[in-house]
Design a protein that fits this description.
This protein has about 350 residues and is an all-alpha fold. It has a domain of about 240 residues: Tetracycline Repressor, domain 2. It contains 13 helices and no strands. Helix 10 runs antiparallel to helix 13. It starts with 7 loop residues before the first helix and ends with a helix.
Length: about 350
Amino acid sequence: MNEPTDDPVARREADDARREAEALRRDRERDERAAEKQAERARRDAEKAERERAKSDENAQRERERAARDAAREAGRALRDAAKAERAAALAQQRAAREAEKARVEAERAGEVSAPLLDGVPRDVAVLWRTPAPGRRGPRPGLTVEQIADAGIALADAEGIGAVSMARLAESLGFTTMSLYRYVSSKDEVLALMSDRAGGQPPAVGPEVGDWRARLELLLGEQRPVIAAHPWLAQTTTVLHALGPNRLAWMEAMLAALDDTPLSPSERLAVTGVLAAHMLDEARVATALADRRKALADEHAPAPDELVLLLADENTHPALVGAARSGAFAVRDDEPLPFGTRVILGGVEAMIARS
């Protein structure tokens, strides 16, 4: 055991050794703290880099989604413009044909040629099934029910169904009002002719299109632009009983699309009726909304979602406010079929599955 020493040199050496050890300890602690700070800085830098990468990925995804939405809108706009141009060309062709026929009629000053009606069939339906009268010597007929229907369609397209009257039709055709009654007995007959003629013929839809749903979707998709071009079809009940050649052809095509399903004939007919009624109701609502927007154009009225957000309180109407903020009230006209139609088809699909 070492004895304490009073040697001054030894004490100085011991003190120097302690100070050296203390200095080494402080240097070690300083180095450890520096290493910890460097490690913490590296960790923060790594976290920042990860956040920036995630943000960059999120921005890129949003940009891709925005580009996809813009492309879809552009494609829908192009399709609508093409359909509008096609309708305008068809209307121009109809007007040219009417003008040519009008000139011919004025030149020939022909008399009445009215084919007989079908026995046992209501007059407003029988008029749709008139066949051309047999040929005879002398001038050709001065007017046909097809020309009357075309004139009514042009008038209703331009000014609405309320503008169609016997006087306006006669004026547009270059005839007297009384002369029209040689061919049709009332405005209702004219509306029936217009409804059937505006509908046109359905496309040929066979098994090559797909199953029953694919065939119905194709037929319904073909009907949408027709109703859009002639919105008055949804505003007159005459279309419901205008059982002319075109209307029967559409009914046949819709029913035939369900031929390979287990549904009964009455169920198939009910399905086609529900789909037709829904399309007309949708067109009525769209027309009413368009008329309201037009009427309020000068008042700078808010959009439906903006109006809901002005009126609804988030505390009492949280679901409604959430729907408005998400854009649920926006009108979507770029879908092949409206949501309600797809819901109906989904219900029919479930009914078929249960059968």
